[in-house]
Amino acid sequence: MNLIGNGKAEFIDCVMALPVFDTHTHLVGERLCARDFWEIAHYFWLFRELQAGGYPADADKLPEEARTAAFLEAYRATRGTLMNWAFTSIMRELYGIEIRDAASISEADTAVKRSFADADWAQRTADRLNIRRFVVNHPEHSAFHRMRENAVLIPRIDGKLGQWVDSVVQSADPAGDFKAVHDEIESLFDGYGASGVPGIMTTLPRYESSAHIRKPIGQGSGRDDVMMELLHAVCAAAERNGMLVQLFLGVERSWCGTAFPANDTERILKLTALFENYRCEFELVLASELNNLDAVQAAWNFPNVHIGGMWWFNFRASTYRDSMQYRLEALAASKSSIVVSDARCMEWSYGKILLVKKLAAEFLWERLESGWIDRETALHTAEQWLYGSAAKRYGRQAGQRRDETPCT
């Protein structure tokens, strides 16, 4: 029996045709596409890599000719970087343009402005990679204009969480204020539950407290203890309303003026009592490389813990490959999603998902070719990682027709 199929190219085509659930975006439903070339070129992740290659931080203030020259120099200097590859692929695949000189940038700018005026461009761009659904975190962003489906709303509460901690820590009556915040959390989550949202999302800063040590809140309670007790309240409210708790971990903003990745060997360990004590589902989305294995261990130990896509500084080919190996050998594919585009326009959702699909296809082909898995397992894993696990977790389980992809 042929367990490989018709070869690598056919297998990669199968994976590239699979549906995708983009589980974290900054897309705005009423304006999904880039307005001009520079909105794509100045996307945060590419912009950071360009700056490392000499691009000025205030490039948007330069005269057009000077900005174009500076961009070309930095673009050439960063040819080996991942975001350069994604940007180059966006220009080539969506617009048929190779960025070589000022004339090609002018041509690309005209093309992007034309696509922005095309009412169906967003849906056609998503369809090129079979991107079915997107997640947003703000209610006002969820109505996706001229798309077949609106976004899935998973409200983010990190802003509220910080305010709640502040109000308790700064209160003259911390115990009383904590009770009021607890009641506010219950009311908020009851409203979320009634509206049908599948869960909430929050980032967390570094914390010294651990969920397995419960502390009464009163005079002298520290910020970390208050935050951890509020996380208990959040998890209890999520459990009561049948909601997911999505935790984005690994980015620190308090040490300097810019966000920075922070590997912490106890970051997930300190949360395990939440996973053990509450029946709600959890999804861990990480920005720190050394916590990828910790997340797999948590998902292996706790049936209600799942792993999400690669976020911020984890979005690298090397960390993807390591994380996919951890996940493949330890977890059912239905416990893992691998797509977090963090995109602010549809073009970057396309570019980053093109990269993720390519990495997943190549990784699974290597496992298939070496005999560790068969073709059916490889394709099932890819489908779950890209779409199926997220669709189930978020309660969006629209089926896929067997004639929509050659992966059979």
Question: Could you characterize what this model shows?
Answer:
- Strand 4, helix 10 and strand 5 form a beta-alpha-beta unit.
- The chain has 408 residues and is of the alpha/beta class.
- The protein folds into 2 domains: 26-117, no CATH class; 132-341 and 374-404, Metal-dependent hydrolases (TIM Barrel).
- Residues 398-405 have low confidence and may be disordered.
- It contains 15 helices and 9 strands.
- The longest helix has 24 residues, at 346-369.
- It has helices spanning 8-16, 37-41, 44-52, 64-77, 82-95, 102-116, 121-128, 158-169, 174-195, 223-240, 272-277, 292-301, 317-330, 346-369, 375-393; strands spanning 20-22, 131-136, 152-153, 199-204, 244-249, 251-252, 260-261, 282-286, 305-310.
- It starts with 7 loop residues before the first helix and ends in a 15-residue tail after the last helix.
- The strands form 3 sheets. Strands 4-5-8-9 form a 4-stranded parallel beta sheet. Strands 1-2-3 form a 3-stranded parallel beta sheet. Strands 6-7 form a two-stranded antiparallel ribbon.
- It is 49% helix and 9% strand.
- 43% of the residues are buried.
